[in-house]
Design a protein that fits this description.
alpha+beta
Length: 628
């Protein structure tokens, strides 16, 4: 037998809605409340009959319950409700939008104290009041009740908006408009459904141990990257959309190519020499330069990760949460968080977080004897783990794709489609030049990706795979194969941006969400092209400026790192709007505009301002700037 749905209704007038709700379903347990004393409530037409109907159905009726102080109500102590309903809230009389916004904010902050963890808050508003795109016509923001922003103050997100079903509640008499016995306009009214947001996760300093070229090394993962590690999106049992996109591509490619994916365990740390020898074309300004730790790491205090993303098995990690450091005594405690053992000065660092899988791909290929020689013996291919069932040939030329996938790191500015970490899928094949292998791969990928808006654009260094609005999502380029008759073709694909395209995600940061509602949509392994259903609708964005004086040696990359760190990745875009160099003080003033926007969490104005103040603290302590 299923458990009854417990519903708390607040701000009732004559209790007609509660009475209808009780009649519609016997599987609900209703607690109906109003602000007025019992004697005053009973004066309303039909109130006595409705109250009796609620009680006869097993419901409860409470009087003098303030919807903005539910946690203080003795009658509700110890009760958690599956649903809290507030129909057409209003301060009464000719109250303006500001007062009604405050009413909503106070109600949301109050109702979460009696709301079950997976409960819902239902708020019905007249058309236009909510201020969301669902209102038609939509009011200007300053003239609306800003219901999403008010709910975010209580860490609630808008998960659904639908028409208020007035026909379903025909005996519902909506009264109280301007404190009169007059109903609200129910035509085109909207029901807003809110749910709890996942909590923000505090950045941590990770200390990792890996074996790089036979040497065991210990180093720190920068705090701004901490939430991108140990997630295992590409594990064999994963249903994450990044894995679904990779599986889709491999399955389709295997229809014409023999595809062999590397299974080796690979470190995310590369030597600078290894990187420059194998990938001289990669922009060195995007590197995360790393200094290995000088102190010994006691591995008994570490816990293992399943990948610094599923690939660094056997690594050891210890961590220090950001808030613990911020709360420590003195500025030195904060400085200890600011990228310890990380140095962006490429001349002094010997190691780098891999910005591409290409160096490791070429090292693996060099170990696979004869895979480029064109052998066609089935036994040799099977020994290499090549899938022959779907293998194909281009004019009888063996078409083997050797692939590798994993996390790569790019030290990029904070822009909407700039990713500091993403999953790269890299392929390499060697074919005779006369068979135009670049054209062959372009045609193959074009058939796969064109339906999702991907097009190939010729550049000097090769073919760029482009899509709107994110831009570059992949490359096809060539390199020497050691034989003048052969050409080595490399394909690099950004699996994260492809997942955004193929599942119609509004933001790449959703891929890293810890909210279980995200992965629940992919449990049944939907095919690419299945649109994602947002569980946080119409999130508000907030703009704050920050300006400061700094010395001549200003490092903008460190600034971006602290922005990501302080904001828990809620800053969507950073723009330099002013710069001024003082002629006498050898100081420069910078002013940046930060846009805070999150599709993954309830981001309120209060929370965004808290993040912004935290950024000021980190900038003053870590970069020793003077906040203006």
């Amino acid at each position: 037998m299923s458990r009854s749905l417990s519903i708390l209704l607040v701000g009732e007038g004559n209790f007609s809605f509660s009475a209808v709700l009780c009649r519609l379903s016997s599987e609900v347990k209703v607690t109906a409340t109003c602000l007025q004393p019992q004697e005053e409530a009973l004066r309303q037409e039909g109130a006595f009959e409705n109250i009796q109907s609620i009680k006869d159905s097993g419901g409860c009726v409470l009087f003098e319950i303030n919807s903005t102080k539910l946690g203080e109500c003795a009658s509700l102590q110890g009760h958690l409700f599956d649903r809290v309903v507030f129909n057409f809230p209003h301060c009464g009389r000719k109250s303006g939008v500001k007062k009604n916004r405050q009413l909503l904010k106070d109600f949301f902050l109050s109702c979460i104290q009696v709301l079950a963890e997976d409960g819902e808050v239902h708020v019905s508003l007249c058309n236009g009041q909510g201020g969301t795109p669902a209102d038609q016509p939509r009011r200007e923001r300053h003239n609306s009740w800003q219901v999403v922003a008010m709910a975010a103050e209580a860490r609630l997100i808008l998960s659904d908006v639908r028409p208020f079903e007035s026909d379903k509640y025909q005996s519902y008499k909506c009264t109280g408009y301007r404190s009169q016995d007059k109903g609200f306009h129910l035509e085109n009214a909207l029901l807003h459904v809110f749910t709890r947001s996942a909590p923000f996760r505090c950045p941590q300093v990770f200390k990792v141990e890996e074996t790089v070229e036979g040497e065991k090394l210990q180093y720190n993962i920068p705090a701004e990257l901490s939430d991108y590690t140990s997630r295992g999106f590409l594990n064999s049992d994963s249903v994450h959309p990044v894995k679904l996109v990779q599986d889709f591509l491999l399955e389709r490619l295997q229809e014409k190519w023999a595809v062999s994916m590397a299974s080796e365990t690979l470190p995310v740390l590369l030597t600078a020499k290894q990187l420059h020898l194998c990938s001289p074309d990669i922009d060195h300004t995007l590197f995360y330069w790393i200094h290995v730790c000088q102190k010994e790491l006691n591995c008994e205090s570490c816990y293992p990760t399943e990948e610094l993303a599923g690939q660094v098995r056997g690594s050891c990690i210890i961590s220090k949460p950001l808030d613990n450091v911020l709360n420590s005594k003195g500025a030195q405690g904060v400085r200890s968080l600011c990228a310890p053992d990380v140095d962006v000065e490429e001349g002094t660092a010997l190691f780098v977080l891999r910005p591409s899988l290409r160096p490791q791909m070429e090292a693996l290929v060099a170990k696979k004897d004869g895979w480029t020689s064109g052998e066609t013996e089935m036994g040799k291919k099977q020994a290499q783990g090549v899938n022959l069932e779907h293998s194909g040939n281009w004019n009888s030329v063996p078409s083997l794709l050797f692939g590798i996938s994993g996390l790569v790191f790019r030290n990029v500015p904070v822009h909407r489609w700039a990713q500091p970490v993403f999953h790269e899928l890299l392929f390499i094949c060697v074919l005779p030049k006369n068979y135009e292998p670049v054209k062959v791969l372009e045609q193959t990928l074009g058939v796969l990706l064109a339906p999702y808006g991907v097009s190939a654009v010729t550049r000097q260094e090769g073919l760029h795979l482009m899509a709107e609005p994110m831009g570059l999502i992949g490359k096809i380029f060539t390199s020497s194969a050691g034989d003048v008759t052969l050409l080595s073709v490399i394909v690099s694909l950004n699996l994260d941006l492809l997942a955004v395209l193929m599942f119609s995600l509004p933001d790449w940061r959703l891929l890293w969400s810890h909210d279980p509602r995200f992965l629940q949509q992919f449990v049944l392994r939907p095919l690419p092209g299945t649109p994602f259903t947002a569980y946080s609708l119409f999130p508000e964005l907030f703009s704050f400026d920050i300006s400061f004086w700094t010395g001549t040696a200003w490092d903008e990359k460190k600034f971006y790192a602290l922005v990501r760190q302080a904001s828990c990745e809620t800053v969507e875009h950073v723009k330099l709007i002013d710069k001024f160099s003082h002629p006498d003080l050898s100081q420069t003033s910078y002013c940046y505009r930060l846009i805070y926007h999150s599709h993954t969490h309830a981001l309120s104005h209060t929370q965004a301002l808290h993040f912004h103040k935290r950024l000021e603290l980190l900038l003053s302590s870590c970069l020793e700037v003077i906040i203006r």
